[in-house]
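Model it.
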Amino acid sequence: MGILSKRAIVTMMAGVSLTLVMASCQKEDMAVDRSRSAPNAGVSSSRSAVSKESAYADGVYRATGKYGSLPSSITVNATLDNNVITDVKVTPHATNPTSLDLQRRFAAAVPGVVVGKRIDEVKVGRLAGSSGTPDGFNAAIQQIKEKARIENSTSK
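Modeled.
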């Protein structure tokens, strides 16, 4: 085998390894943790049009997600349009300066990660140095999904 062939094989193997590592990370990020908060706790919404293909009613939804052993929380306002998050705003509630700083950095970073994504694809991990706040965000998104489901919207 020539030097060029060995380099091509090594490069190809490195690419395959990287792909496998990235795929395994994505699988972990897709898991849903439903144990962190009560369903529909702190959820409010206002609805508008409903698309026939949509699993969720369009509108603006609000939920408070709790997380951590000493319950911390954040409030999430999300706008849904045809199952896609078109706007999101996170309101921090921390009083501890360090926690408040982490929540604020998370709040500033999360729109860039979730706006434009289908709500069923959203599961945020560690972001902007914050490892706990994403748990509260994901809990709030789960509440919003439950509140916005079309089959629930006709009975309320």
